[in-house]
Amino acid sequence: MDNSSKVAVITGGNAGIGLTVAERLLTEHPGLRLCLACRNKTRAQAALDALQLSHPTAHISIVIVDTSNIKSVYNAVTEIKQMYSHIDYIYLNAGIMQVVGVDWNYFWKTLFTKNFIHMFTTGDGLLKEQEEITEENLEKVFTTNVFGHFVLIKELESVLINGTRPCQIIWTSSSNAQKHHFSLDNIQHRNERGGHYSSSKYSTDLLSLALNERLNNKGVYSHVTCPGLVMTNLTFGILPSWFWNLILPIFWLLRIFVPTMNYDTYNGSEALVWLSKQKPESLDPMCKYVSHCNFMGKRYVHQDKLKIDQEDANQLYDQLNTLEKKFHQKYKS
Ligand SMILES: NC(=O)C1=CN([C@@H]2O[C@H](COP(=O)(O)OP(=O)(O)OC[C@H]3O[C@@H](n4cnc5c(N)ncnc54)[C@H](OP(=O)(O)O)[C@@H]3O)[C@@H](O)[C@H]2O)C=CC1
Ligand SMILES: CC(C)=CCC[C@@H](C)[C@H]1CC[C@H]2C3=C(CC[C@]12C)[C@@]1(C)CCC(=O)C[C@@H]1CC3
């Protein structure tokens, strides 16, 4: 095993924001060894081939992981541990949103009120979602976005902790993370009408804080990012690509008021890549690092103070830990 060069693992690294982060990391950190942790072998191989074209000497590998399936996460951990003795950056980026429609009534009602900036920044109240339960009897958005990643981090702990080099855990959270959609009495957000994605991203923010409390003294730092609104398969699942292309000029105008209207993945990945170039000890665990792009097209990172509570974070951590133990017993003993 080559221990000298840096290693980055990216979940959902084959498409959208994850793929752009992969490309930019290879440029920013020459010699970096990259692991694309993806659920689909063909799509992962296509991404690897594209990255290898622009970075012919880069060392890139693929690990198959479906974060909505805990058995698959355990298998991926075994593979990652065989490949790497230390991880410098782990991007917890894979994510889904199960949208079935947009509430256009709410959109028109809010457009000419003072709440319009909040609506365009967060999407709060605009999206209709549907729930799905996985074959392991877990809520799918919660598992894909949060619990699968929790298990990944927990099982990889020995590879993240290294006496001399720090490790950065970098989550792709969202402005859509809203406290009013989250409850410690129902962390999976089961049997609720909507708010599944929002609850999962709020959990992400809490979990990141809880991880810092547990792991900072071992050289592991966790931070949350927000890519803003970016055109990817996720947004094409909300509205068709022709619609987004049509309203591109509106995005430029909206940027005067809403600098998170990033549109492309390069703009959206700014905060995620910027974090990899910072001393992790100097970063604020109570901040969300947001990718901004102004009207003139200038990219920069904005820090938003997180409105979350350490006690909630610890309670969420404990519940995730208890849930994980059940799967550990089932699959690992
Ligand atoms: N686009 C946006 O405006 C915003 C996105 N985000 C977040 O950014 C992250 C990346 O999303 P984005 O790039 O937009 O969307 P994409 O759909 O383009 O990318 C999502 C990535 O996650 C992977 N993925 C989805 N489900 C699983 C799973 N069960 N196991 C493993 N990988 C999985 C996808 O794989 P596959 O290609 O096989 O489907 C894909 O690689 C998400 O966490 C999302 O919530 C946050 C704020 C705004
Ligand atoms: C004229 C115009 C831009 C119409 C689009 C209205 C809505 C469909 C979007 C307005 C704000 C968007 C938004 C998201 C999805 C699409 C909107 C609701 C997200 C929720 C997508 C996923 C995220 O993580 C955050 C985004 C916030 C903004």
From TrEMBL:
It is a single-pass membrane protein. Keywords: Endoplasmic reticulum, Glycoprotein, Lipid biosynthesis, Lipid metabolism, Membrane, NAD, NADP, Oxidoreductase, Steroid biosynthesis, Transmembrane, Transmembrane helix. Its main location: endoplasmic reticulum. GO terms for molecular function: 3-beta-hydroxysteroid 3-dehydrogenase (NADP+) activity; 5-alpha-androstane-3-beta,17-beta-diol dehydrogenase (NADP+) activity; estradiol 17-beta-dehydrogenase [NAD(P)+] activity. Gene3D superfamilies: NAD(P)-binding Rossmann-like Domain. It is found in: Endoplasmic reticulum membrane. One of its GO terms (biological process) is estrogen biosynthetic process. Pathway: Steroid biosynthesis; estrogen biosynthesis; Steroid biosynthesis; zymosterol biosynthesis; zymosterol from lanosterol: step 5/6. It catalyses: 17beta-estradiol + NADP(+) = estrone + NADPH + H(+); zymosterone + NADPH + H(+) = zymosterol + NADP(+); 5alpha-androstane-3beta,17beta-diol + NADP(+) = 17beta-hydroxy-5alpha-androstan-3-one + NADPH + H(+); 4alpha-methyl-5alpha-cholest-7-en-3beta-ol + NADP(+) = 4alpha-methyl-5alpha-cholest-7-en-3-one + NADPH + H(+). It comes from the Eukaryota. Pfam families: adh_short. It is an enzyme of class 1 (oxidoreductase). The chain crosses the membrane at residues 234-254. Its EC number is 1.1.1.210, 1.1.1.270. Belongs to the short-chain dehydrogenases/reductases (SDR) family. ERG27 subfamily. Binds to the short form of prolactin receptor. This is 3-keto-steroid reductase/17-beta-hydroxysteroid dehydrogenase 7. It comes from Patella caerulea.
